[in-house]
């Protein structure tokens, strides 16, 4: 996937990380995994530092050590890894300023447990294919608000369209396919123009032209203006 410097800058400039939450971000992802884009550049481009994770698994004791000994303030975990840590000790996230989790369907009970056990920690449910530079949406999970958290709203400078098969917008509550436009949308697939043409298409709703990425994910708008994930268009 051809992600540009401008795409990375757009990710790092999002207001979710602008208040110092990314002063020290734990780098535990392989550099070939798109999460490392956030782990490296969100702190460095906001005046923070990257904390390289010690060898070994990121489990509850390791996380508590990273916070207390290394001063980690934020991290991203895949949903599966977040669940493992949360099941072992939801209070292990206390001391962080932010934890973001995504990549699979959220487990509402565990996200609620973490939000309740670590009241000083912002718990974000994030969503985004590599083609939209790691994250396209975010939603803050609030303790005491039950139910499956939505994937939320667009990062700054991004546009979310829920469209039918003719690329017409669908109303809130109606399922459609999610298209992402604006800052952060990659150039396409390196050396694969045919595939690029099928997934990166003209954005008919962009003023002055633009492209949007066809995610293949089925979603719907809520009455509150959030996006709820429903499933994959290909089953």
Automatic annotation (TrEMBL):
Taxonomic superkingdom: Bacteria
GO MF annotation list: phosphopantetheine binding
Annotated ranges, domain AMP-dependent synthetase/ligase: 3-189
Keywords recorded for this protein, A-Z: Phosphopantetheine, Phosphoprotein
GO CC terms: cytosol
Gene Ontology biological process terms from the UniProt entry: amino acid activation for nonribosomal peptide biosynthetic process; secondary metabolite biosynthetic process
Claim: Hydrolase is one of the keywords in the record: no
Keyword Disulfide bond: no
Cross-referenced InterPro entries: AMP-dep_synth/lig_dom
PANTHER family: FATTY ACID SYNTHASE (PTHR45527:SF1), NONRIBOSOMAL PEPTIDE SYNTHETASE (PTHR45527)
UniProt name for this protein: Non-ribosomal peptide synthetase
């Amino acid at each position: 996937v051809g992600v540009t410097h401008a795409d990375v800058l757009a990710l790092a400039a999002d207001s979710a990380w602008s208040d110092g939450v990314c002063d020290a971000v734990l780098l535990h992802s392989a550099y070939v995994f798109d999460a490392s884009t956030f782990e490296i550049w969100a702190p460095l481009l906001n005046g923070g530092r990257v904390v390289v994770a010690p060898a070994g698994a990121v489990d509850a004791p390791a996380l508590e050590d990273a916070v207390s000994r290394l001063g980690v303030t934020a991290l991203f975990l895949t949903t599966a890894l977040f669940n493992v840590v949360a099941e072992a000790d939801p209070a292990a996230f206390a001391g962080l300023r932010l934890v973001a989790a995504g990549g699979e369907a959220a487990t509402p009970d565990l996200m609620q447990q973490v939000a309740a056990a670590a009241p000083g920690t912002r718990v974000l449910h994030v969503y985004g294919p590599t083609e939209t530079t790691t994250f396209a949406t975010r939603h803050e999970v609030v303790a005491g608000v039950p139910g499956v958290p939505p994937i939320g709203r667009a990062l700054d400078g991004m546009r979310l369209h829920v469209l039918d098969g003719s690329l017409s917008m669908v109303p809130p509550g109606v399922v459609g396919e999610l298209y992402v436009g604006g800052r952060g949308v990659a150039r396409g697939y390196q050396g694969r123009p045919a595939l690029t043409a099928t997934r990166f298409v003209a954005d008919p709703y962009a003023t002055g032209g633009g492209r949007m990425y066809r995610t293949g994910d089925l979603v719907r708008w809520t009455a509150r203006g959030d996006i709820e994930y429903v499933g994959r268009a290909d089953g």
